[in-house]
Amino acid sequence: MPPSPGVLLLCPVCRGPLAAGPDGTSSGVPGREHTPQLLSCAGGHRFDAARQGYFNLLTGRGTSFQPDTAEMVQARIDFLGSGHFHGLADALCAAAKEAAVNRPVVLDAGAGTGYYLSRLLEAVPVSAAVALDISKFALRRAAKLLPGALCLVCDLWQRLPVADSSVDLLLNVFAPRNPPEFARIVKDGGVLLVVTPLPQHLQEIAGTAGLLGVPGGKGDDVAASLAGAFDLISTRTVEFTMTLGPGDVRNVAMMGPAGHHRRPADLSNLSGELPVTAAFTLQSYSRRAHG
Q1: Percent of the chain that is helix, strand, coil (3-state, to 5)
Q2: Taking a C-beta distance cutoff of 8 angstroms, is the pair 153, 54 a contact?
Q3: How many CB atoms lie within 10 A of CB 102?
Q4: List of residues 6+ apart from 133 with CB closer than 8 A
Q5: pLDDT tens digits along 227-261
Q6: How far is Cα 170 from Cα 186, in angstroms, rounded to an integer?
Q7: Dist CA 94 CA 163 (whole Å)
Q8: What are the angstrom distances between the C-alpha of 229 and each of 154, 156, 164, 187, 232?
Q9: Which of 110, 113, 115, 173 has the most C-beta neighbours closer than 10 Å?
Q10: 108: closest CA among 87, 130, 128?
């Protein structure tokens, strides 16, 4: 699955087309043979791939959004690697298949370590894949997990380095949403899949782990924010019970927003296993025809 940067990407500085540079079309690294090492535009702006295979396209001051730290990313790798959220990944893949887009261009806005996108690429044949996240630590892992995909560090609150109407399938899993930019980059009839937690998500360990509360009606808020350009196709609840040990609880505490304020030592007294609820809303949207 070779990437198509000339079709998909825009320079974050001048907004001109961004393509693989003539002196860097192949990484030479097993599994990343088709990943470019240089992206450049006609305006002379160039971006070299990091050693781990991702591109840093952050420019300007950006927002005050805090990227995940290396410690938070490792906690997420460990937790997801234990298979606790397989049920959610399966539901996301099923929704993508229902979209029935032939070999879509897929973009994951807030891809993190690439876990959900990698699962989707195993289930759905695609023509190109792009992973966006503000954390370089997360995208180091994503680039390793997603050979052939373009992994780009950027701020989701800013204009995305992606061409108009170039994306068939857009994923947004536990990540910030930028409705105007989502509307700009998704093709007419393209599909947006949004996952948000429900109030009962991780309720059994919320106090112990210091997790932030989830307000009710989050799915309704998402739908309202997207209503100007997207039509809601379906809303489904994904809920199951996990068995978590002390290490899992520590990872849950560290891998989300609470991880910016906690340290593993804060949870050193945990013991035993307990059943914990995982509960999400998975919404599918269709891009209304551009006016």
Answers
A1: 30, 25, 45
A2: yes
A3: 8
A4: 67, 110, 111, 112, 139, 142, 151, 153, 154, 175
A5: 989 999 999 999 999 999 988 998 998 887 665 55
A6: 7
A7: 27
A8: 23, 18, 14, 11, 10
A9: 113
A10: 130
Which pLDDT score is estimated for 30? 36
**CB of 142 within 8 A of CB of 17?**
no
pLDDT of residue 4: 42
Residue 104 and residue 126 in contact, taking contact as beta carbons nearer than 8 Å: yes
Please, which residues bridge with residue 238 across strands?
280
Task: Render 19-86 in DSSP notation, one character per residue.
Answer: EE-TT-S---STT-TT--SEEE-TTS-EEEPPTTS-EE---SS--SPPPPPHHHHHHHHHHHHTTTTH
The pTM assigned to this predicted structure is 0.90
* Per-residue pLDDT tens digits for 171-209: 999 999 999 999 999 999 999 999 999 999 999 888 888
How far is it, in rounded angstroms, from Cα 192 to Cα 92?
11
